[in-house]
Protein 1
Amino acid sequence: MALLTPQGVKEVFQFQKPEGREHLRRLLNWKEFDELRDSRRSILLDTLYDSIVFAVGKGFPWVEVAKVVKFTEELLKETKGCSITEAVTILGNKLRDYQGQFNTTHLLALCDYFHNTVIRHYKLYQYVLGQDQDVKLTVTHLDVCAPPQPLPLAEGKDREVWKHEQQVAELSAAEVQKRTNVLLLKEVLRLEREHLLQQTLSAAPVEQALKREELENLISEAIHVQIECLKELLQYEIQITFDILDLKLQRKTLTLNAPIPCPPPLTSQPGQDESHKSPKANKGKKAKAKKK
């Protein structure tokens, strides 16, 4: 590994974790790698970074912090493929090798740290760092649509006022739809009436003159068709008229109970007009009163 300097590990610790990890990678002379595809290198970098945080937290001098990183990398490399018994033996031998580089307190803290991390989770470390992983990664690119730009606050409306306007608009639209339905029905009944009259006339004999009784029946049937169409139209118009009146009543009720916007519009109070008039106008009034 590249030998870290005390100043280097100090800079790593002073950064936030993402920037600190990246700075540590550069100090170790590692090439850039994909965090998702190369999980082994990513976890190893995390382990080295955590050893710096541990050493600083325990009050190690910066010189010793750099040695802790070196100690960590050597331990992970030397225990690769070993049993847990062999790993404990290797850890004890390395602690003896570094005995002259740390004081007793820091050496014990270092022993506890690796016992509670690497040794306690040894199989996990071996599984992740000791063998190649078959990574199956699916990457999906999604387009993120930014929300629309909100309107200025000056153009905003009170929620209750907006709801009231929506209700009034819905009633107005319903009234327009009712009137449109009447026009559509008139057109449908007109076409149906013409069709029925055509059927009635086509049933009469064309080549010979009609007898009085046949003519009367023909006229009677034509009048009956007209009356039935008008009857149906009149019934529908009456119902639509009641419906429209009901919609008008609802709209009028909503208008009378319209919410007051917040803040309410400024209106002049009685007596304010007099107070806002110019002093000259007030003097003129007083002079006229004296003359009287």
Protein 2
Amino acid sequence: MSSPRGARRIVCLTEETTETLYLLGAQARIVGISGFTVRPPQARREKPKVSAFTSARIDRILALEPDLVLGFSDLQADIAAQLIRAGVAVHVFNQRSVAGILEMIRLVGAMVDAADKAARLDETLRGGLAEIATSAATLPRRPRVYFEEWNDPLISGIGWVSELIGLAGGDDCFEELAASPDARGRIIADPGEVVRRAPDLIIGSWCGKRFAPEQVAARPGWAALPAVQAARLHEIKSCDILQPGPAALTDGVRQLHTLIRRWAEAAA
């Protein structure tokens, strides 16, 4: 039997590449994962945890003898630099859009000699997004949606989240901030600006902790918001929407569309 081509011992520093490799049937190549990994659930049982998000156990990673480490964004640049100096091959993705997520999936597939499977996964994901867009086009109204990624300071949704809100049938209240790849560029310094934009629907996804609708509704002046008056404050778990991978394009966007559709039907 010939040896598998492509990277054979992979460490994934974030969840989305882990989920992608499982979906491609290449999970046997994963030798280490992020401790924040939730999807797929079996990864937590099967794979050693070697990193957080901005920190990692370099000694544990090196002990696994990876031939490839996959990371995400400049926030993992220090980890990447340490591994590169130790002679490890590192690829750091930086996808911030739906198109970027799909490109990441195809590239991961190429890295593990699974380009055909990655192409089929890409096609499946695109088909699912198209179905949601078709359904969204039938809605009688589009809600103004405020997506809150963090509560102190207030941070609005990143690029792919804003895109998915639009695709699912809503209008992102802070679409102009979504283009910022850096969370600092999406800080809403004046909470009164949310009041002025009067969202019909508030969706929270506070990474690492439970979204608290009662705290949001109690903010000064927010009782006047249409979303608060109609009790339309909902949570989507960060693992379903804030990881720039397959989860956002499946469970994440479906949850967005369900919440938007319920609002639109009630408001009709």
Protein 3
Amino acid sequence: MITSKQFFVSAIGTDSGKTLISAILARHLNADYWKPIQAGDPRDSEEVARLTGNTLTIHPERYHLKLPASPHLAAKEEGITISLNDFELPSTGNLIVEGAGGLMVPLNDDDLVIDLPLKWNMPIILVCNIYLGSINHSLLSIEYLKNRNANVAGIIFNGPETRSTESIIEQKCPWPVLLRVRKIDNLSGQSIEHYASQVKF
């Protein structure tokens, strides 16, 4: 049974800041961290460990693939077919699970990243990073989550303050904004602690 303190971190696309947000959330909850699929190096689990001062439990990836690409392609290069049945949640308390890429990144010919939290009925936190085109990508992701009847805890903005962008997304989003992470020039444990104290749950 999934508790209210276990969350799946996904995003509107690749390089949206999921690892940074996962580190902040893990610190906020004093939670374990798990990235089920890592494609390429460096490993995101190593970055989370560094940002949190190696004080949290980091669970090993189910798949650590060599090619920095979509999981279905990276797995195919190694003669592997990923199945949803391959994944079992770590037996623990508070937990942050980081997805690979965006919601609709393929795991195989049939399944997508979104199918993992849906399988576990795990609350999703959607990272909406700010860039030209992010309104469209955010609203498409929000509509997709609504259509899949996903369990969504809220969204997190990541990037420079752009109220015109954020306000439009907020108007169309049925879930709360849990945090706003602005540009961090010197990423450190102190900045992680700063934002961890601002998470709204």
